[in-house]
Each structure stands twice: as structure tokens, then as C-alpha cells.
Amino acid sequence: MNSNYQHIQIHPNAHGFGARVSGITIDKPLMPAVLEEVKRAWAAHSVIFFADQPLTHSQLEAFTLQFGEFGVDPYILPMEDHPHILELRREPNETAVNFGAQWHSDWSFQERPPAGTILHSKVTPPVGGDTLFADGYRAYDDLSDTMKGCLNNLVAIHSARMPYGKEGLFAKETASRSMKIVASEEAEKTWPHPLVRVHPVTFRKALYVSPVYTLGIQGMTQGESTALLSYLYQHMVQEKYVYHHRWAANMLTLWDNRCTLHNAEGGYDGYQRIMHRTTLAGERPVGVLPLN
Ligand code: SIN
Q1: What is the secondary structure of 133-161 as a DSSP string?
Q2: What is the pTM of this model?
Q3: Ordered mean pLDDT values, 10 residues apiece, the chain (292 residues)
Q4: How far is ligand 1, taken at its centre, from the CA of residue 2, in Å?
């Protein structure tokens, strides 16, 4: 437990990546001093979670807005009457691959990708269905100075094309799914972001690429960028950087998209899983060097 906090208790995982927060309920507005500590814990641990916190849709929205404005969630139809909540639902008989089943940082193809994502569990399966988180800070810190020096200068191209384009994964899907996903031409757009991102709160550097949304690296041949990105992906998701988050019903998890990747593990065919998700508006990613 950490004595830097007076209003909440923090139970960090190994290496400090991910922490459970206890000592408060989150169904009502947090007092300013409590909110300040929660924000500090989020910055320190990147992924924080609160157990046993039943929330209505309105309470989830109100909790989210204490951390900033809602992000913009494209390609997925939100809940009726709750335009900022996505329901991640998979029924026991669904055979389509579970949503979010590959390493990514949410909506990194946007000019201003969401700073954070909040996921609240309603129904969780007895097996499988964990969310895996990878620590982009430590993955960066452990690289050699030579590699860091090279990556610090690079710009990666992000796009929603692979999952959400007209020729993308979801457009080609034949199995039916409960979630309403809308493939679009819009997904062909690309956006450049620094490959190494400087976090606006902690000022730490983190790797900011993912196999779902990164198409390549500016100024490199496809072969060069594929080779470098493949190396980075296998480096970033080594077990030593990964936290396996096990859900129970009524758990709320808040993660930082600016310094982590996540991957929704499947393995729960035959069981229902229902989660409610909001995103927090973010800033334009800043790199070590200014973008040209
Ligand atoms: C996601 O937001 O990518 C899905 C996470 C999950 O369902 O565990």
C-alpha cells in the first residue's frame, strides 16, 4: 500500500504497472481531493481499477466526465439514448472473434486519439475474457540508447483501414455479432503520429504503435517498416511488460491509451460477456522531436 495517498488505497501490481484502487465508491461525484488522488494514481500506474462498483449508465457517464470530455467513438453504434457509451456484448452462441482481440491503443488513427478508456463490466464469463495490458513506458525504457535514438526520430502512419475499411476485417466478416460495427470509406484516412510519444502528464516516453492501426513508418520502405514494427510488437508484448486483468462483474477499469496497448483475450465461447465503454478525449500526440 502507498502512503502518498490520504483518501484512497492503492494496491499496485509488480513493477507498478496497473493498480487496484480501494477505499472509495465511485457512483457519486468524487470530492476534489479524492479525484486528484485518483488522477495521480492513474498517471503513476497507467491502468487502475475499482472492484464491486455497480453503476447505472448515467453514473458511468458522470464518472467519465470527471476526467475530461468524452472522446469520439467511430464505426460502432453506441447504446440507444447513451451516445457516449458503447456496449461490448458477446452472446454465448456467437462465433465471430471477440471485439478488440489484437494489441492496440484505442482509436490511434484519430488526430487526437482518446487519452483514456473506461470499461465497466456488467456480465463476465467464468473462464477467459481477460484484458491484457502492455506497458509502453517500460518497453521503451529497456531499449538500447542506440535504438531509442533511432526511434525518437520516427513517425508512424495510423489508420482504421485494417479493421474498419470497406475491405477490412469487419466488412469481410460472415459470422453475425451482437455489436453493430459500420465499415466505412472514412477508415482509409491516415494520420501521422510520433512513434515514441511523450506523455503530457508524466513526461515519460512510451512506444506508440500497434499491429491493428499502424500501417507503416514514414520515409521507410514497406519491407523496412514491417521488419522494424514486427520487432517492436514482439518486444512490447513480452510477458514481463504485460498485466493480465481478470474481470468480475461491476468492476471499472480506466486505462491510459498514451502509454499502453491492450488486447481483449477470448476463450469464453459459450458464455455471455457484457461491458460498457466510454472514452476520454485526448490531445494530439507529442513526440521527442517536433513533427515536420
Ligand atoms: C477494447 O476496448 O479493446 C476491448 C477490451 C475488452 O473487451 O476487454
Answers
A1: EEEHHHHHHTS-HHHHHHHTT-EEEEESH
A2: 0.97
A3: 86 95 98 98 98 98 98 97 98 96 98 98 98 98 98 97 95 94 96 98 98 98 98 98 98 98 97 98 93 58
A4: 29
Q: Which of 202, 210, 73, 203 is nearest to 134 (CA)?
A: 210
Dist. CA 144 → ligand 1 center (Å): 31
- Whether 182 and 77 have beta carbons less than 8 Å apart is answered as yes
- Asked whether the beta carbons of 208 and 194 are under 8 A apart, the reply is yes
Query: Which residue ranges have their beta carbon within 6 Å of ligand 1?
Result: 88, 99-100, 117, 119, 131, 262, 264, 275, 277
Count of alpha carbons within 13 Å of 169, Cβ hemisphere only?
Answer: 15
254 close to 116: Cβ distance less than 8 angstroms: yes
Neighbours of 27 (CB within 10 A): 15
Cα dihedral 64→68→74→80 (10° resolution): 40
Q: Which atom of ligand 1 is nearest to the CA of 277?
A: 2
Residue 46's nearest CA partner among 280, 208, 203, 255 is 255
